[in-house]
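Consider the tokenized backbone below.
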């Protein structure tokens, strides 16, 4: 490595005397070093002095496809697998999927000579510069750091396809021959290194831990912010006969993020020193823009309690909350906000099975009583609105109160098609769902069935994704318009009814929408400054604005993004249901997106948003 560095420096300085030294075959090791020490180039003198004193570089950073670590734990999100069990699936993705080929190829050796490539020389300079920044930040915290400037060596992944097929060797008789005469091996290095294809960043031993952090930071987003696409097979090795689609396409950002434990062990670094440096850098704000590089959240009792509390949550595509997803969700926050984020999660109201069924029953009973007050003999149909959450809500109601519903003559249907096939003009239909907040989803579904969704004046209604995307035939549309329509949910907001009325009236839908009922109100409940730090609230607002902008595919944040940053209407809601999240809840908790060129994944997900996930 030192020899390669000397050779590179000689070419760059164009020093004829120095170049003559390096191309001379008459020098011994000692005379060569003597002549190098007498050159006018300072860098050459330093490198030669290190060679003479056997002050050889130490491995400071290691990288390999085998060291891959997920930034967004999508296997755990969609399957509930532990981090250890999920590891083989991540390794398969990074070694076989197109978005990641550029990373692996970009870190391979490209030169067929001893001279390093220009790209890799630039990497060495950037890592050395970043190491100086880190050393300066650590010095502010009273940490003793090495003096001078580190000399960094970037050793790329071996590229077996471009390496020489034979090398010059001396035989035992002192003759110069080719290794190709004796072996078909493409290169004479450790078979273990070939098998693992490991690259390294080396430096002086006293700089090792700092250079590790510097290399990690420089390489993290080295491959830019171009957004790709990737299909995720949701079966994760399981055989399924389900007719439902098992692939979900997500967006991808290329990031260089490795399992630190593997890299540090390979380089024999002091993990305690690394952790200490990171903790001090976190306090200086060094990791605020790239918080995933800060000290990661450990598996603590607090995190286990959070995961256990929300273990019943089952979102789109079986989205789950696990210890791993809680850890990685918190890792997205700058270190100074992570305790605030834990407190926010602890303050959420979660509707478990028992609570959800009781609230929905209360809403349905109130609606039935209101209908029967006008006409005791009126027929009432009970139908899930649309999507998994609505069907699950109805199933929960049936399991808990089926006998009660039968006794009062309620007719239960699996779908709007089934209901419209038997309902008669003037009868009542109660759609059920788990929540209604802004009224957007309910309005969009009704208008979609009628073929009027695209006619809405509201972009959020036109673009609503958490609905069934089919239009009823003309006879079914006519029948739906002849029925008295109501909605019942577990939780809802007081202004939802007015919003739905306005959406339907604008397009002249012709529906008889007579009202909605819910078991518990989603009241606006902003946290006071004593409950949430203003700086943390500003961060949540920033994340919410960027996530709404991202999923709306807008180039810049607009007033709509600002109005939905802390939940629709900025209501700062804190409710999560068994299968969904109301739009009034803090947006950062349920909406994926790209924030400050980094993927943001929510701990929960609102129905229709899982397809907009961004992984890296």
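A designed sequence for it:
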């Amino acid at each position: 490595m030192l020899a390669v560095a000397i050779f590179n420096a000689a070419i760059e300085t164009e020093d004829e005397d120095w170049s003559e030294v390096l191309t001379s075959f008459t020098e011994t090791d000692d005379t060569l070093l003597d002549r190098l020490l007498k050159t006018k180039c300072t860098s050459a003198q330093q490198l030669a002095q290190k060679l003479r004193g056997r002050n050889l570089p130490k491995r400071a950073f290691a990288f390999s496809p085998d060291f891959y670590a997920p930034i967004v734990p999508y296997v755990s999100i969609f399957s509930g697998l532990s981090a250890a069990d999920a590891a083989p699936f991540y390794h398969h993705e990074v070694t076989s999927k197109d978005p990641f080929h550029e990373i692996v190829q970009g870190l391979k050796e490209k030169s067929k000579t001893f001279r390093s490539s220009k790209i890799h020389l630039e990497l060495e300079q950037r890592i050395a510069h970043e190491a100086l920044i880190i050393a300066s930040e650590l010095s502010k915290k009273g940490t003793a750091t090495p003096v001078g400037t580190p000399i960094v060596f970037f050793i790329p992944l071996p590229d077996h396809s471009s390496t020489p097929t034979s090398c010059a060797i001396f035989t035992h008789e002192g003759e110069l021959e080719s290794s190709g005469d004796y072996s078909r091996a493409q290169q004479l290095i450790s078979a273990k290194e070939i098998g693992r294809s490991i690259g390294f960043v080396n430096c002086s031993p006293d700089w090792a831990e700092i250079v590790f952090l510097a290399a990690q930071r420089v390489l993290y987003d080295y491959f830019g912010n171009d957004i790709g696409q990737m299909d995720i097979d949701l079966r994760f090795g399981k055989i399924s006969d389900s007719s439902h689609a098992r692939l979900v396409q997500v967006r991808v950002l290329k990031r260089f993020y490795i399992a630190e434990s593997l890299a540090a062990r390979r380089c024999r670094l002091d993990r305690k020193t690394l952790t200490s440096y990171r903790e001090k850098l976190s306090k200086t704000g060094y990791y605020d823009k790239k918080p995933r590089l800060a000290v990661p959240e450990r598996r603590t009792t607090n995190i286990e309690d959070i995961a256990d509390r929300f273990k019943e949550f089952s979102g789109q595509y079986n989205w789950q909350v696990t210890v791993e997803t809680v850890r990685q969700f918190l890792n997205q926050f700058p270190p100074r906000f992570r305790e605030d984020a834990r407190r926010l999660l602890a303050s959420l109201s979660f509707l478990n099975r028992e609570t959800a069924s009781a609230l929905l029953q209360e809403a349905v009973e109130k609606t039935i009583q209101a209908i029967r007050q006008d006409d005791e003999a009126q027929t009432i149909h009970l139908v899930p609105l649309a999507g998994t959450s609505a069907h699950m809500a109805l199933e929960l109601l049936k399991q808990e109160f089926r006998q009660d519903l039968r006794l009062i003559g309620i007719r239960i249907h699996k779908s709007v098609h089934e209901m419209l096939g038997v309902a008669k003009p003037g009868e009542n239909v109660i759609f059920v769902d788990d929540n209604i907040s802004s009224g957007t989803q309910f309005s969009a579904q009704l208008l979609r069935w009628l073929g009027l969704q695209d006619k809405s004046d509201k972009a959020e209604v036109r673009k609503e994704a958490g609905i069934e995307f089919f239009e009823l035939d003309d006879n079914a549309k006519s029948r739906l318009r002849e029925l008295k329509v109501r909605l019942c949910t577990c939780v809802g907001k007081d202004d939802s009814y007015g919003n739905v009325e306005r959406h339907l009236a604008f397009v002249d839908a012709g529906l008889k929408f007579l009202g909605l009922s819910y078991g518990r109100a989603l009241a606006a409940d902003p946290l006071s400054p004593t409950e949430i730090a203003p700086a943390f609230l500003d961060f949540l607002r920033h994340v919410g604005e960027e996530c709404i902008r991202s999923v709306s595919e807008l180039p810049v944040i607009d007033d709509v993004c600002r109005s939905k940053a802390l939940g629709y209407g900025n209501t700062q809601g804190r409710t999560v249901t068994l299968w969904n999240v109301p739009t009034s809840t803090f947006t950062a908790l349920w909406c994926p997106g790209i924030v400050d060129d980094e993927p943001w994944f929510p701990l929960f997900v609102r129905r229709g948003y899982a397809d907009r996930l961004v992984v890296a």
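The chain has four domains: 1-54, 57-157+197-273, 303-347+527-615, 357-520.
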